[in-house]
Design goal:
Length: 241
């Protein structure tokens, strides 16, 4: 990861871990996560709907359903970017999601590479659960992959995502950038280098050959508020090279 993001991750753990109660109360009051033990959640930002558990076991964000049928290239995007091809839109700055994954101990890999040859995305495996209130008032919860299905077989997406970490660097004028902040691409279904999380296999972005689509049987109505819970799939420290 870039030095800037590493330092920011440490800042979130040390300085913003965790915001004083008065700052938490000043945050947007009408957005709250659907989580069984909300008292264990600590905000990573005074306004945006992103939290980590006090034990740093899980990252929690709130979003809304934006797509139930149609072409699918992303599982989630930033609000105001690519809702037309994403199941969920999340109104959180992408770098905060990256920092939150660092806070829970996830290890960044690398985005998809195409030159000189295809190299699939890599990184620590991340499990994502999606929770929402059903029309009957009961809490529904499914692995994120159950909201996606193979467009040919109808089978759900069984693979976890990997923490690729998007792309960061400096432009020609020396200004730092974080690509996901620019594109709004958060969680990929098709391979895109800008995403923070991607599927760890080759998945085309060619509209005529997209391999996955939304599974409307498992997706609540458009506009439904949903809570996404991110956890490390294996919690094993990577071997030192």
């Amino acid at each position: 990861m870039s030095r800037n993001l590493f330092i920011f991750g440490l800042f979130v753990m040390a300085a913003a871990a965790f915001l004083p109660a008065e700052q938490q109360r000043s945050a947007t009051a009408d957005i709250s996560p659907l989580y069984d033990t909300p008292e264990t959640l600590k905000r990573l930002d005074p306004v945006e709907p992103i939290w980590v558990t006090a034990d740093r076991d899980a990252l929690v964000v709130v979003g809304k359903i934006t797509l139930r049928e149609g072409l699918l290239e992303f599982f989630a995007c930033r609000t105001g970017s690519k809702e037309y091809e994403s199941i969920i839109a999340i109104d959180v700055k992408p770098y905060l999601i990256h920092a939150g994954l660092l806070v829970i101990g996830a290890h960044k890999g690398h985005p998809v590479r195409y030159d000189p040859e295809f190299v699939p995305p890599s990184g620590e495996k991340i499990q994502i659960q999606v929770r929402w209130n059903g029309e009957d008032g009961q809490v529904r919860e499914l692995p994120a992959g159950e909201l996606v299905r193979n467009s040919e077989t109808g089978e759900p997406l069984s693979s976890p995502w990997v923490f690729t970490g998007s792309i960061s660097g400096k432009d020609q004028k020396g200004n730092p950038y974080y690509m996901a902040n620019i594109t709004g691409e958060l969680i990929g279904i098709s391979n895109f280098a800008a995403t923070i999380l991607d599927v760890p296999f080759e998945s085309t972005s060619d509209n005529e050959n997209l391999a996955f689509e939304p599974n409307p049987d498992n997706i609540p109505p458009l506009g439904t508020e949903v809570t996404l819970v991110f956890r490390r799939a294996e919690k094993e420290e990577p071997e030192e090279e």
